[in-house]
Amino acid sequence: MAGMTCYKTGERSRLFYAVRENNGRKDQPKGFGWRDFRNLILRARSRLGGPIVLVWDHVRIRLSAPLRKFIEADADWLMVFQLPAYVRDLNPQEGVWSMVKRDLDNLAAADLPSSPEP
Fold first, then answer.
1. Predicted structure pTM score
2. pLDDT the model gives residue 111
3. How many Å apart are CA 23 and CA 64, to the nearest integer?
4. What pLDDT does residue 93 have?
């Protein structure tokens, strides 16, 4: 699961997320790729209707060349701040993950939707 906690002045906070299902097949990616992160950012932008200031932790895939090119190409609406390696206090998303992990700790989902509800 990957997600973005979004804040817009005068509105309630929102969570945009994507789920990666893995059935253990060899041809299936285990984690999120740069396109998955790009698509999550684009979905958040279309729902929020404005520019995005993105504060990211220091995960290696987020530093990949294709994702950097996407960010540079869309600099008119996308500004990115890269956090140091691990600074839990500066990353509000960390608090969301702790709640999700606690609530979904032993969940065995019978079915996952093909795409999350907006």
1. 0.66
2. 63
3. 26
4. 60
